[in-house]
Amino acid sequence: MPENKGTLKYQRVLLKLSGEALMGDRGFGIDPQVIDRVAGDVKELVEHGAEVALVIGGGNIFRGVSLASAGMDRATADQMGMLATVINALSLQDALERHALKVRVMSALSIHSVCEDYIRRRAIRHLEKGRVVVFAAGTGNPFFTTDSAASLRAIEIKADLLIKATKVDGIYSADPVKDPTAERYERLTYDETLDRRLMVMDATAIVLCRDHRVPIRVYDMNRRGALLRILQGEHEGSLVEYGEGA
Description:
Layout: E1 12-17, H1 32-47, E2 51-56, H2 64-69, H3 74-98, E3 103-107, E4 116-117, H4 120-128, E5 132-136, H5 146-156, E6 161-166, E7 171-172, E8 184-185, E9 187-188, H6 190-195, H7 203-211, E10 216-220, H8 226-231, E11 238-240
Parallel strand pairs: 1-2, 1-6, 2-5, 3-4, 3-5, 6-10, 9-11
Antiparallel strand pairs: 7-8, 10-11
Helix pairs in contact: 1-3, 5-7
């Protein structure tokens, strides 16, 4: 048992990473430096006694929505997107193992030769044993985003917090890269996030977290030590939860 276990505000967390986040400055694929940095951040959490699960998207390899809009059957396109998330999950597994962590990839689609099937009780047992769990293939169903998969898995494993990694330092009223006048929110309620149509996660994901009281923290994944500070209860990025809003 890590010496620091018990000093964290959040003991079990789920980190949601977009596939695009793994690209870094590239236009496609995986930047080895980015995935190594993510693995290092996760290792720091584990060393402090946290139980860590991850959900990763596949947009750096394939986006089903884009192909569906061009005429492909949406269900088929989404299934291809799910397979892209498995590629990312295996890449992340390799990076985490190179940091001497024990990792299990669990897929919502059965791919026995490369990863385990997702079984809720087994996932929780992995976490209890100190293993990092990477959830792949979304929910296993078309028409659902990996944001919804992250909310669903966070609820199922009884995570204390859902963390959404982004390239900006929280939630804004508009894209701060495109609109320098965009307002930054430090704290919001679930309903405020939905009513203002803030593009934090899709509406289904927000509603799932609201109905099961899973708080969401949005942070800048490029800030060193940010993940650990979040688990220690320090303010980092933006928080979505019950209560009075911003």
